[in-house]
Every structure is written in structure tokens, then in C-alpha cells.
Automatic annotation (TrEMBL), chain B:
InterPro entries: ABC-2_transporter-like (IPR010390). The chain crosses the membrane at residues 20-44, 56-79, 118-138, 144-173, 185-210, 230-250. PANTHER family: INTEGRAL MEMBRANE PROTEIN (PTHR36832:SF2), SLR1174 PROTEIN-RELATED (PTHR36832). It comes from the Bacteria. This is ABC transporter permease. Coiled coil: none annotated. It comes from Streptomyces caatingaensis. Keywords: Membrane, Transmembrane, Transmembrane helix.
Length: 270, 266
């Protein structure tokens, strides 16, 4: 077991507790899960409506956009499920309930990540996965076992990158408790950005999403490699394979930021 | 009347307190504005004059939407959750024995909120968009005045919809499901994802006649000058009509709901 096993077990217990609590209002759960599916699906409906007028967006066909959309939404959905409620840290800092986390014999990060665990978010994952499956079936790619493995790694890596962004956003709130919405521009905003081909956006924006907040490694770079297309920044070919390393680096940096955040935390004292 | 003005004022002040949250919201709206603006550029590059807009008008649509998102509470964040919570925990009883009308009280508070968010969250994203892209903003002050009227009516229609959803809590206790469905309809049929003029055929025609169109599509079109002369009056009348119908429906529902209130405790 060890420390890590303890942490995972604690996460499971807290998540299970919230699931039980959710299931007290079963109809509401079904409705909100469907709603979560539908909110996510509306983005794709908008893309479908666009493609009812055009054949290609930024040079990408509908199945290709579906591949981009499916990967980012599935990755984002996974991260959102696992620690999407980390952005409640600010609220807890403000009302003083964060102190409760500090006195319990469970790692704080685990408690924050599992706080109000929202099972309804499987709706978004399901929606992303459906579009992804459709995109995979329709794009002009020969799916060798290697490519399939590459795609799976891409989705997992993407989830890890989004998780790092969520964590960084949570850490940021130790300094600016009211600013939880800033994180939204990188999480939800990032997810929206990655649904579209990079060729659509201005070079500076793509550069920012590659080198500053490296969201491009969630799906742009690997998907471009899968589709056999050049990326607009003309990075070397191996860049498409850097996703896992980038994810680990980001998780490490976010972890450090989180630690610094906790260390700088001063209770409201009331 | 003085009472409601005071309530509106306190609504304004309440939201003005959270400066950092406002700045964070402005930042997020601006980021989304940029993302959407580039996708719209790509779309209008393929199909110039799609939905009757030229490129500058389409970009104006993006940025005015981002500027109005908080004001007409298209993504929630208004009073609806608070109303639901008060019904759920019984605090609504306190609201009911105040010597004020429940619906007007909440409307006044929401108008105050909207007033702040129009200034606090609307101006900067629109400016950022206008500085970076070529927008089709009118020079005619009358058009801006009409736009402000349309925004006011949009806020009232938005309030009326959210009020109805909030009242559902009297019957359902946990209103999260209904709130979700309402948010979906709001997102899609207000035009915040894609202008309703781009929606095809009959579907588009129906979407443009629904109350959600009054919350975003109509104000933007008024600003863009798509309703010339008396057309603008027609657009405002469309909004006012929905506002009246939905507010009346809210009154009816409220009368029904308050008859079934049972307050527990001693």
C-alpha cells in the first residue's frame, strides 16, 4: 500500500460518498448527466451547423475536426471528472472551510480533487468519446496497432495536461481567491480552442498555446501527425511525441505551485 | 417605487464588491472572444455573407455576445440559483412576508446586477475586440440608444425565464435538472454559439421567434442596424411582447407556488 495507496483509497472513498449523496436525487442526477452530455454536444452541433454551409474549415474536413473535437472533449471530460471541482478552493479559502481539509488525515490535494465529486460529468466524456469514435471511423487514416496506441496515449496525455491546468488554477486561488474564473479561460477556453484546427487561428495564438500554455500537446500536434499534416509552426516531427513528457513536466510545475500555495495559506482566522 | 430603486442599487453594489472576480470574468470573456473570433473569420472566409453578415458584422456579433454574456446571464450566474436555494432551505418564507412584491423585488435586484455587469464586464471585452479586429460598430448615437433599450429588454426577458425556472424549485426541491435544461436552451437558442441567422430553413425561423432570441440575437441585430427604421421598433416590440408574456406567466406560477408553501419549524 504505502502513501500513494492510501491517497487513492481516500479519493475513492470521498468520491463514493459524493456519488451516494448525488443518488439521493436520482432523477436530478439523470437530468444533469444528460444535460452535461447535451451542453457538450451543443458545441458539436454548432460545428455541424457550420459544416452545413461549408466543406472545410481552415482546410480541415468534418471528420478531421471531429477527431480534434473528440480527443479534446474526452481528455477534458476526464480531467474535469477527476479534479474539476478543484476550483472550489477559492470559495473554501474565503469562507474558512479550507481549514477542515488541513486537519483531516488525508492528503489535502486528494480532498480538494474529490470535493463534491460530480459523476454527472461522465456525460461530457461520453459525448466526446462518441464524436471521437465517429471521427476515427471516418478520417482517412490507416489504423495500425501503433496508431491506435498513439491515439489512446494522446487522450490520456491530454487529460493529464488539462489536469495540470486545473491544478495550477486551484493553486492560483490561494493568492486570488475570487479569480477562479481566470482558470476557466484556460480549461474551458482551451477545450474550445482545441476543437478547431490550428490553421484557423493567428500564429501568435498557436504559438502561445504551444510554448506558453502548452495545450497544443493535448491534441493539435499529435492529431496533425496522425492525419499526416504539417503543423503551422513547422515544429520538428518528434514534437508530436512529446506529449507525455510535457504532461509530466506540467504536472510537476503545477504540483510545485500547489505546494507553494498551501504554504502561503493563512486561515481567515475566524 | 423608491423601495425597488434601493433594491436595484444594492444589487448593483453587491456585484461591484467583487472586483477581482469581475476582472477575472473580463479576462475569460476576452479569451473566448478571441477563440470564437478566429473560428468565425475562418467560417466567413469560406462563406462570405453567411447569415446576411459580412465579416466585420460577424466579428461584432462575437464581441457583443461576449460583452453581454454576463449581463443577460446567459451562462447562469444570475439570481436563479439563489432563488432555488431559498426555496429549498425555506428562507423564501422571509421574502414572502416582506411588504414588497416577490417578483418585482427579484427583478429590481437583477436589474441592478445587470447594470453593473454591463459596465464592469461588457465594456472592456468589446474594446479589446474593437482594438484587435475590424468591427462594424455604429457611429450613430441613436443606434446605441436603441441598443441599450434592447439590452434592457433582453435582461427583463432573461429575468422572466430564470424566474420561472427558479420557481420550479417549489415543486421539485432539487432544481438542478431543470436549471440545466434551461441553460441548454438558453445557450443554443439565444445565438451565443452561432448567430440564429445561420440556422437553416424552418428551424432557423422557429429559433428566431422563440423568447431566447430576445436575449442576445435581437440586441446584437439592433446594434448592427439590421432592423432599419420601424424595423427596430418591431424588434423591441418582439422583446417587450415576450417580456410581458413571461412575466405574466411568472406571476401566475408564483401565485400557485405561494399557495403551497408550508414552512417547517417553530
Amino acid at each position: 500500500m504505502g502513501e500513494r495507496g492510501h491517497a487513492l483509497r481516500a479519493y475513492g472513498l470521498i468520491a463514493a460518498m459524493w456519488i451516494r449523496s448525488t443518488m439521493a436525487y436520482r432523477l436530478s442526477f439523470v437530468l444533469t448527466a444528460l444535460g452535461n452530455f447535451a451542453v457538450s454536444a451543443l458545441d458539436f452541433v454548432a460545428i455541424l451547423l457550420m459544416f452545413s454551409h461549408i466543406d472545410a474549415l481552415g482546410g480541415f474536413t468534418l471528420p478531421e475536426v471531429a477527431l480534434l473535437y473528440g480527443t479534446t472533449c474526452t481528455s477534458f471530460g476526464l480531467a474535469d471528472l477527476l479534479l474539476g471541482n478543484a476550483d472550489r478552493v477559492g470559495r473554501r479559502v474565503r469562507d474558512g472551510t479550507f481549514d477542515q481539509f488541513l486537519v483531516r488525515p488525508v492528503p489535502v490535494l486528494v480532498q480538494v480533487a474529490a470535493d463534491r465529486f460530480a459523476l454527472r460529468r461522465i456525460g461530457r466524456i461520453g459525448q466526446g468519446a462518441l464524436v471521437l469514435a465517429w471521427g476515427v471511423a471516418r478520417v482517412d487514416v490507416e489504423w495500425t496497432p501503433g496508431r491506435v496506441l498513439f491515439a489512446v496515449v494522446m487522450v490520456v496525455t491530454g487529460a493529464a495536461i488539462f489536469a495540470a491546468v486545473f491544478l495550477a488554477g486551484a493553486a492560483f486561488q490561494f493568492w486570488a481567491a475570487d479569480a477562479s474564473e481566470v482558470a476557466n479561460s484556460f480549461t474551458f477556453g482551451g477545450c474550445t480552442l482545441l476543437q478547431y484546427p490550428p490553421t484557423v487561428f493567428a500564429k501568435e495564438l498557436v504559438r502561445g498555446a504551444t510554448f506558453v500554455v502548452p495545450l497544443a500537446f493535448v491534441n493539435w500536434l499529435p492529431a496533425l501527425w496522425l492525419l499526416g499534416r504539417d503543423d503551422p509552426l513547422h515544429l520538428p516531427g518528434w514534437a508530436a511525441f512529446c506529449g507525455p513528457a510535457v504532461a509530466l513536466l506540467l504536472l510537476g510545475l503545477s504540483g510545485l505551485a500547489w505546494r507553494a500555495g498551501i504554504r502561503s495559506y493563512r486561515s481567515t482566522g475566524s | 417605487m423608491r423601495l425597488y430603486a434601493a433594491v436595484a442599487m444594492s444589487g448593483f453594489r453587491r456585484y461591484a464588491t467583487y472586483r477581482i472576480a469581475t476582472a477575472a470574468g473580463v479576462f475569460t470573456n476576452t479569451v473566448f472572444g478571441f477563440v470564437l473570433a478566429y473560428t468565425f473569420i475562418a467560417l466567413w472566409h469560406e462563406r462570405p455573407h453567411l447569415g446576411g453578415y459580412d465579416r466585420a458584422q460577424a466579428l461584432t456579433f462575437v464581441w457583443v455576445s461576449q460583452a453581454l454574456l454576463a449581463t443577460v446571464s446567459l451562462l447562469g450566474g444570475g439570481f436563479q440559483e439563489e432563488l432555488q436555494e431559498r426555496v429549498r432551505n425555506g428562507d423564501i418564507a422571509i421574502d414572502l412576508y416582506r411588504p414588497a412584491d416577490l417578483q418585482l423585488w427579484w427583478l429590481a435586484a437583477d436589474l441592478g446586477r445587470a447594470g453593473f455587469q454591463l459596465l464592469g464586464r461588457g465594456v472592456v471585452p468589446l474594446l479589446a475586440g474593437a482594438l484587435h479586429f475590424e468591427l462594424a460598430l455604429p457611429a450613430d448615437p441613436l443606434r446605441w440608444l436603441l441598443f441599450l433599450c434592447a439590452v434592457l429588454l433582453a435582461v427583463v426577458v432573461g429575468f422572466a425565464v430564470h424566474y420561472l425556472v427558479g420557481l420550479c424549485a417549489f415543486w421539485l426541491l432539487d432544481g438542478a435538472g431543470v436549471a440545466m435544461v434551461s441553460q441548454l436552451l438558453c445557450l443554443f437558442f439565444s445565438g451565443s454559439l452561432l448567430p440564429l441567422t445561420v440556422f437553416p430553413g424552418l428551424f432557423g425561423a422557429v429559433a428566431r421567434a422563440l423568447p431566447w432570441a430576445a436575449m442576445l440575437q435581437v440586441p446584437v441585430d439592433v446594434l448592427l442596424g439590421r432592423h432599419a427604421g420601424w424595423g427596430a421598433a418591431g424588434a423591441l416590440a418582439f422583446q417587450a411582447g415576450w417580456a410581458a408574456v413571461l412575466l405574466a406567466l411568472g406571476r401566475l406560477t408564483q401565485a400557485r407556488a405561494t399557495r403551497k408553501v408550508v414552512v417547517q419549524g417553530g
